[in-house]
Amino acid sequence: MAGRREYYIEGLSVFRAADKLAAAGIPVLSARRDGKKGLYLQVDAKHGKKVFAILRGSCYNVKKTAPRGLSLLASFWKKRAGLFFGALLFLAAAAFLQTRVLAVRVTGSGAYLGAQVEEILAREGVRRFSAPPSEYAPLRAAVLALPRVSFCSFRKEGGVLTVDVEVAEEPVPLKRELLAPATGTVEELVVVRGTPLVSVGDEVRAGETVVAGYLLIGGEKREAAVIAQVRVKYPFAAEYEADEAGALAQAALDFGEIEGVHTTKTERGYLVAGTAHAAAAVNLG
Predict the structure, then answer these.
(1) Can you tell me the distance from the alpha carbon of 88 to that of 143, in angstroms, rounded to the nearest whole number?
(2) What is the pTM of this model?
(3) Residue 270 phi, psi (nearest 5)
(4) Helices 48-56 and 16-23: crossing angle, nearest 10°?
(5) Can you tell me the distance from the alpha carbon of 129 to that of 136, in angstroms, rounded to the nearest whole number?
(6) E strand spans, the chain
(7) How confident is the model at residue 64 (pLDDT cuts 50, 70, 90)?
């Protein structure tokens, strides 16, 4: 093995140890005294066994010290070769995995479509440990074809492929008719779209159609969503087992907007009577 070896030699006339080695054909690369009986010698590492054989035979006490030069470096890497190659393997694996898809994450308001999105990716060969897609356009088009999806984007960070999916709100179907909210007299009617079937002052029954979902154009009926509101007034009377204030409060809760209210004392409490107003509207903000 290349490099130097250092030995510590003890004994009488220890300085003669260098001469003995030189005489045996072993060059001494360096030497330094340590007190009267000690000597540090450095020789080429390949002569290590000869040094012990020659000097121990001459009544010297010989000890090998820490490796020097290339021998020290070789010894260091020999002891740590497993750790070194393990680290290299780890770095190589980490670098490889950075180029792979380790997980798919679906975010946004369309995250509930995660299973469908992963199925689309799998059809295109994008799954765990696969390479990321070279083209995102076909994937984006397939995701946008899912119900209600209005936006889709892809982003890869490390081994995670993030698919951001946004969906549009479900449209609320427009109602096709306006119904009377109570039995009484129409006191107000506003029609933006649709055909009114009653007028202000007419009597109507609860649930009766007051504006129909069609338009009369050239004598023909054409279906249309209604945009209208109606207000109906009607008399009411209700008896409550409470004092007068309590009866009035309960009547307001039961009938909403009321007017012309009067009360009558009864055996069980109070009878509250008057005029109530009920309103209904469709497709108006």
Answers:
(1) 40
(2) 0.43
(3) -135, 140
(4) 120
(5) 18
(6) 4-10, 28-34, 38-44, 61-64, 103-107, 149-157, 160-167, 178-179, 184-193, 195-196, 203-204, 209-212, 214-217, 220-223, 227-240, 257-265, 270-282
(7) confident
